[in-house]
Design goal:
Length: 312
C-alpha cells in the first residue's frame, strides 16, 4: 500500500502548467481520488467558494498551486491584484483546510519572495534579510505570507503545513502569451516567430546581464510529490536545479536551438528584475530526497518542440 492509495488529494491550479504535470504524476501513484477544480467552478478569492470546495472535495491532502502569476510586465501592470488575490487565496485555502481537518497542506511559494540582493546561492535562512525586488514584491510577499501562516498554524494548531520555494519553471505546456510569459517561453516564442516571419531581429527586455535558475516542470512535480510524502517540518525548502545562467547566454542558446540567426536587441529601458537568482538546493535532497534530473538543453529542446507544434 503506497502513501497515496487512501488519500483524497485536492490540487488547486491542477489544470495549469505545473498543476497538469503534477496531476499526471500523482495519477501514477493511484490515490483514492484527485480533485483538480477549475477557477470557473471555484473562484478561490471568494470565501464562499473556498468553503464549497472543501465541502465538495473533502480532501486528506491539499496541494495549493493556484495563483495569479506572470512575468515582469504582468507584475508591473497588476501589483494590487497580484498581491490581493494571492494573499486571500492562500490564507483562505489554509484556514479552511485547518477547519475541515485536512491531514496535510502543501503550500507553493516563489523565489520572488527572496530579498533583491540575496547572496548567491540563496539559502532558506536568507529569506527575511531584506525586501524583494520591487517589480514583483507584491506577488512575492503575498506568497511569502503562506510561510508565516503555515508556521503559525503548526505552532498553535499543530497543523501540518509545509512550504516549498520553487525557482522559475519551464517545459511543455508553459505560458507563451505575449503579455504574461516568463523568460524562456517569451524568448522561444520570439525566436520561432522571427524564423517563421523571416525577421532579422528580436527585441528582448533589459540588459540581458541578470542570471536566472530554471527547473524543468516534470522535475518540479516530482519534488512536490516527494515533499508531500516525506517532509513534515516548518522550515521552508528551496526547490530548484542549483545552477544559474545569464539571460544573454540563455537567449543565445535558444536562438541556436530554434534556428534563429538574426540580431538580438536588448531594450535597456525595460527593467531587468532581480540581479541574480540561484538556489542552495541541499535541503530538498537531504529532507525528502529530491534532486533535479533533467539536463537543461534537453528540457529546452522538449519545450521548443512542444511550442513549435502549437504554431503549426
Amino acid at each position: 500500500m503506497s502513501y497515496w492509495n487512501t488519500k483524497r488529494v485536492l490540487v488547486t491550479g491542477g489544470n495549469g502548467f505545473l498543476g497538469s504535470h503534477l496531476v499526471s504524476r500523482l495519477k501514477d501513484q493511484s490515490p483514492k481520488e484527485i480533485i483538480a477544480p477549475r477557477s470557473k467552478q471555484y473562484d478561490l478569492v471568494d470565501q464562499s467558494n473556498v468553503v464549497r470546495l472543501y465541502e465538495d472535495a473533502r480532501p486528506d491532502i491539499v496541494i495549493h498551486l493556484a495563483g495569479r502569476v506572470g512575468g515582469i510586465g504582468a507584475n508591473r501592470a497588476n501589483p494590487g491584484k497580484f498581491f490581493y488575490d494571492n494573499l486571500v487565496m492562500g490564507a483562505q485555502m489554509m484556514e479552511f483546510a485547518r477547519r475541515f481537518g485536512v491531514e496535510k497542506f502543501v503550500a507553493l511559494g516563489t523565489i520572488c519572495a527572496y530579498p533583491k540582493f540575496t547572496p548567491v546561492p540563496f539559502r532558506e535562512e536568507d529569506l527575511w534579510n531584506g525586501y524583494p525586488e520591487e517589480t514583483n514584491a507584491p506577488y512575492g510577499l503575498a506568497k511569502k505570507m503562506l510561510l508565516v501562516q503555515a508556521q503559525a498554524y503548526r505552532q498553535q494548531y499543530n497543523f501540518n503545513a509545509i512550504y516549498l520555494l520553487p525557482v522559475n519553471l519551464y517545459g511543455p505546456g508553459d505560458n507563451f502569451a505575449e503579455n504574461t510569459s516568463h523568460a524562456i517561453p517569451a524568448i522561444i516564442r520570439k525566436c520561432l516567430e522571427a524564423v517563421r516571419d523571416k525577421s532579422g531581429k528580436i527585441v528582448l527586455w533589459g540588459t540581458g546581464e541578470p542570471t536566472r535558475e530554471f527547473l524543468y516542470v516534470e522535475d518540479a512535480a516530482e519534488a512536490i510529490q516527494l515533499a508531500a510524502e516525506r517532509y513534515n517540518k516548518s522550515e521552508p525548502v528551496n526547490v530548484g536545479s542549483g545552477s544559474e545562467i545569464r539571460i544573454k547566454d540563455l537567449a543565445t542558446l535558444i536562438a541556436r536551438m530554434t534556428g534563429f540567426t538574426g540580431n538580438i536587441v536588448w531594450d535597456t529601458a525595460r527593467p531587468d528584475g532581480q540581479p541574480r537568482r540561484c538556489l542552495d538546493v541541499s535541503k530538498a535532497e537531504s529532507y525528502f530526497g529530491f534532486r533535479a534530473r533533467t539536463n537543461f538543453e534537453d528540457g529546452l529542446r522538449r519545450t521548443i518542440e512542444w511550442y513549435r507544434k502549437q504554431l503549426n
